[in-house]
Each structure stands twice: as structure tokens, then as C-alpha cells.
Design brief:
230 residues; Rossmann fold; alpha/beta; 3-stranded antiparallel β-sheet; 8 helices
Length: 230
């Protein structure tokens, strides 16, 4: 199985989080714009940050890295993908068993009546204050992503742990493997007799435990892997 982080989507034109100057959090404090308390206390401030993210992510396309993982799944070599990303690109590439532990921008939901809106419908919900408001009950509409201060979805975490426990090999792609509880999943694979292969730039806490560590461009590394298995 594969565990992916922000790095796999960088070749699609989506910045990662922590790279100095260019990362998503380089010039903004996430606790001030992407925390559930901010959404509830000052939804205009929240949406002033998240609305442009919707625009920037909406037209992004999968890259060769996403496509390589989908190709492995089609060949029966990959049981599934656990991703920390909210960008929908694994599904767009054709991966079928995708566990999105941080949710997805694909939909947004009214906090009052639970009306659901697709990503293409949200823009029409914004009022003059810059807040997305349900057109059925005028409740606050929130993206179906996990914000800081929220618990990860119980079902997704259970699915992720199950995949990790039965994996003969966990392929860790584009993740620093430091954000918990997802960062504990490679340990679950190791504890159950599986192995790790890491494809990411920079160090991770699991480098010494990995059978393989690659630090080249992620899309190129995964494309080469797929070709080698042909």
C-alpha cells in the first residue's frame, strides 16, 4: 500500500506545506486561518484563506506520480492509497481504494442541515461578507476537510490502520512522516512484519528502518518504478 503526503502533488503545481518561502504555511500561521475555532468564530477570515485555495486546487491535474500509483493498483500490486492530501488527485488519476484521512475539497457541507455541495457549487454560496452560506437554511457551509483542532474521521483512520497492518510493503511518498497520527502508520507495518520504501526529499524518522530510500523527483521515481515492473 502507499502512504502519500503533500510532496506527491508538488509536480502538479500544488505547494507543499513547510518549504521556506514557497510552502503553504511559509507566510501564514495556520492556527490563525485554518483552525476550526477560526471557522466558527470568524468565518469570513477562514474563507478569505480557503476560498483562494478552492480556486487554486480546482483546476489541478494528476501527475505521473499519481498515475503510477493508480497503475500499480490496476495491476493488483497495490491494495490502496492512504493520503494526507485533500486535493482529490489520486481519485482523478484512477486510484479506487483511496483513504483520505484529512478529508477532501470535493464536497462541502452545511453545519445546520447537512446539505452537501460539490466543489463547483460552493462559489455561488458566498454572500457579501465573503462567507459560504447554505441556500437551503442559511447555515454555515464548511469544506469537508479536517481543520486544525478537529479529530480525524474515525472510519478513515480505522481503514488506514487496517491497510498498514496487512501491508507487505508500505510505499511512503512525499511525506516527512512527522504529523501524527498518520506518522505512526509506518510503525504499524513494521510491527506486523512488513517493510518500508520511502520516496521523499529530506529526512524522515523512518529512514533507518526503510529497505529503500529515494530522494529524486517523486514523479520521475515512481514512473521509473512502474516501468521497471512492466
Amino acid at each position: 500500500m502507499a502512504l502519500t503526503g503533500a510532496g506527491i502533488s508538488v509536480p502538479s503545481g500544488i505547494p507543499d506545506f513547510r518549504t521556506p518561502e514557497t510552502g503553504i504555511w511559509a507566510n501564514v500561521d495556520p492556527m490563525e486561518v485554518a483552525h476550526i475555532d477560526v471557522f466558527e468564530r470568524d468565518p469570513a477570515r477562514f474563507w478569505s484563506y480557503y476560498r483562494p485555495r478552492f480556486h487554486s486546487l480546482g483546476d489541478k491535474e494528476p501527475n505521473a506520480g499519481h498515475e503510477a500509483l493508480a497503475g500499480l493498483e490496476r495491476r493488483g500490486l497495490l491494495d490502496g492509497v492512504i493520503t494526507q492530501n485533500i486535493d482529490r488527485l489520486h481519485r482523478a488519476a484512477g486510484s479506487r481504494n483511496v483513504v483520505e484521512v484529512h478529508g477532501s475539497i470535493e464536497t462541502s457541507t452545511c453545519r445546520e442541515c447537512a446539505a452537501s455541495y460539490g466543489i463547483g457549487e460552493v462559489e455561488a454560496l458566498f454572500d457579501e461578507r465573503g462567507i459560504a452560506v447554505c441556500d437551503a437554511c442559511e447555515g454555515a457551509v464548511k469544506p469537508d476537510v479536517v481543520l486544525f483542532g478537529e479529530m480525524l474521521p474515525t472510519r478513515a483512520i480505522a481503514q488506514a490502520q487496517e491497510l498498514a497492518a496487512r501491508a507487505e510493503l508500505m510505499l511512503c511518498v512525499g511525506s516527512s512522516l512527522v504529523v501524527h497520527p498518520v506518522a505512526a502508520l509506518p510503525g504499524v507495518t513494521l510491527e506486523n512484519g512488513g517493510r518500508l520504501a520511502i520516496v521523499t526529499k529530506g529526512p524522515t524518522p523512518y529512514d533507518d528502518d526503510a529497505t529503500l530510500k529515494l530522494e529524486g523527483e517523486i514523479d520521475a521515481e515512481l514512473s521509473a518504478m512502474l516501468a521497471a515492473l512492466a
